[in-house]
Amino acid sequence: MQSAEVEEAFPLGQSYNVREALMLYLKAIGVGVLVGLLSAVLWVVGILYWAKIYVFDVHLSVNSGPMLVVALVGFVVGFLWTVRRARATN
After folding, report:
1. pLDDT exceeds cutoff 60 at 1
2. CB of 32 within 8 A of CB of 78?
3. Mean pLDDT, to the nearest integer, of 4-31?
4. Does 33 score more than 90 pLDDT?
5. In a domain, 2, yes or no
6. Residue range of the domain that includes 63
7. Residue 61: CB partners within 8 Å, gap ≥ 6?
């Protein structure tokens, strides 16, 4: 990296604590996992609800492909939300 890029990424005047950064990312991973699991559970509950209303075969709708995508999107949203919120307060 060039020195200008380093100064832009890490402005002079700010102190960086490795423990704080590590805890931030561990917390963000934890929140991301929880949001991912919650979104996958809500996905299954939503499908079961629709199956009850419109009477269709649930086995055809609940498969791992879309549920993994929903869980991954939930993880990314939870992770980014936590990191952005922590950076905004500093």
Report:
1. no
2. yes
3. 72
4. yes
5. no
6. 17-89
7. 47, 50, 51
Quote the CA–CA distance of 69 and 57 in Å, as a whole number: 21
Q: Give φ, ψ of 56 to 5 degrees.
A: -135, 170
Residue 77 belongs to some domain of the structure: yes
Distance CA 57, CA 22 (A): 46
Q: What is the DSSP string of 43-89?
A: HHHHHHHHHHHHT--HHHH--HHHHHHHHHHHHHHHHHHHHHHHHHH
Question: Tokens in use for 83?
Answer: 């990191």
Confidence of residue 53 (pLDDT cuts 50, 70, 90): confident
Return d(Cα 81, Cα 31) in angstroms, integer. Answer: 9
Q: Are the C-beta atoms of 47 and 61 separated by less than 8 Å?
A: yes
Model pLDDT for residues 3-14, shown as the tens digit of each residue: 555 555 555 555
Residue 2: the pLDDT is 52
The count of domains in the chain is 1
